[in-house]
Amino acid sequence: SWAEQSAGRAPGRVAAEEVLEWAARKRRWFGLPAGVSAPAPEAEPDYLDRFVQAQNALSGTHLGKAEAAVAALEKAFPGLPGPLTLRCELWLRKSATDRALAACQRAVAGYPESLQGHYLLGVMHSMADRHQKAIEHLELVVAGDQTVDDAWKRLAAGYGAKGDRPNRDRALKRTPR
Predict the structure, then answer these.
(1) In degrees to the nearest 10, what's the CA dihedral of 149, 150, 156, 158?
(2) What band does 99 get if pLDDT is binned at 50, 70 and 90?
(3) b/e map 41-52, b = 16+ CB within 10 Å
(4) What are phi and psi of 13, to 5 degrees?
(5) Does pLDDT of 147 surpass 80?
(6) What is the pTM of this model?
(7) Using CA atoms, how far apart are residues 165 and 153, in angstroms rounded to an integer?
(8) Chain-centre distance of CA 32, in angstroms?
(9) Cα pseudo-dihedral 89, 69, 108, 162, rounded to 10
């Protein structure tokens, strides 16, 4: 919020526009919508710290620690889509794919711009060979953030599986070699 407010005071400047684009992209990844349902600007650093801690715990091998971190984030910031996407990822890591799918679907229904929610849905649909559904979600991810290499790779694989060579090649051009 503070970066957005500062950039908003410098309209028309390239750097200000870049800050606003960066902030919007980060909001979509962290499930932190701007506006009425968002926490106050002074609470955002705490939210981001807790979100990153939970995300880091999910990257580890001790899912009990991740469960506690996600639960604490949900309790501290109820109603935000970010914790729901982390819950989705937690259930996915626990192989509870039906619960993961439902959580991610609720997250994107409540916040259609949730890049992480769409990414996780794209991953789950890719894993289940539901290529069209995976493509739909992954296209939303790369439209919102073109720097997500894995989304481009999965998108290329999805288009390849459907026999759509032009779109597969377009996605492959964006993947690192």
Answers:
(1) -160
(2) very high
(3) eeebeebeebbe
(4) -85, 135
(5) yes
(6) 0.87
(7) 14
(8) 10
(9) -10
Residue type, 135: I
**60: alpha, beta or left, given left = phi > 0 and alpha = psi -120 to 50?**
beta
CA dist., res. 76 & res. 70, Å (int): 10
State both tokens at 102. Answer: 């439902």
Give the whole-number percent of the chain exceeding pLDDT 70. 88
List Cβ neighbours of 93 (8 Å cut-off, separation of 6 or more). 58, 63, 66
d(CA 50, CA 101): 23
- The amino acid at 172: L
Three-state secondary-structure class, residue 54: helix
pLDDT (average), residues 83-98 = 95
